[in-house]
Design a protein that fits this description.
Blueprint: H1 2-8, H2 15-22, H3 37-47, H4 50-55, H5 62-71, H6 75-82, H7 104-113, H8 117-125, H9 130-144, E1 148-152, E2 157-163, E3 169-177
Antiparallel strand pairs: 1-2, 2-3
Helix pairs in contact: 2-3, 2-6, 7-8, 7-9
Length: 184
Amino acid sequence: MDGVVDKYGVPPELIIDYLALMGDSVDNIPGVPKVGPKTAAKWLNEYGSLDAIMAQADDIKGKVGENLRNSLEQLPLSRELTAIKCDVELEVGVEDLAQSDPDTESLLRYFTDLEFKSWRQELESGDLTLDDALKKFEEGIKLSRFCSKKLDETEKKVSILLKDETGEVKSELFSLTADDPERE
């Protein structure tokens, strides 16, 4: 608990309210414009909860107070979107999950679909074990979170770029030019 307070400035039970106030552009969660970690923590420590902040919105002065008042209608949605749903019913239980033998055919198909050409060649040639191939596939999936689309107007080209955590481009996964016959 102390680690959460040290890192975020609020206790664990206020993290959802904290995240709702700040929003998250990556997850398309609206927050209060110009409210960052310091302001969110300050308000939550002063007022005690998002509900209390919303109830006292008229007392918060300045541009940030105005932004809060303009955001009151969407803050309950922001809170709902930041909450992790823990009561989801699943068709299978943990005991039903077991590791099975790797499906080489599917893995080869995924490598082809995702244009992981060198990994596919390594797997087909026997230079890559199934375990290593699966690790590379998992790595590729993790890295794919950092894919972005880029439109180059001068070349009339759409590319899907694979980026690492720092935003550095690692490779071009897919490219489609204006005169490509596969283009719709």
